[in-house]
Amino acid sequence: MKVDKETLKKIAHLSRLDLDEGKEKEMLQSLSEILTWVEKLNELNTDNIDPLTNMSMEVNALREDKIGEHLDRERGLSNAPDRDATFFKVPKVKD
Fold it and tell me: What is the pTM of this model?
């Protein structure tokens, strides 16, 4: 598929790209190559192919939830670099 200059300018505008005249020819060539490649992919028969739902075949190692020991607040706050009676103190992020 061939992309003309008007289509390239419209794509550049929609994607907020600032194309200079020197790069226009190179970009037209690249877009044409990409669209040609996608057209070739459309020729593949994918009727018996399940959609990909995950990029990895890894299976999550899930564990059963169990009621365990409850840690008290004081023990959790004991590791805080700065705290008051019941909360962690953190630096101010926004004025």
Answer: 0.47
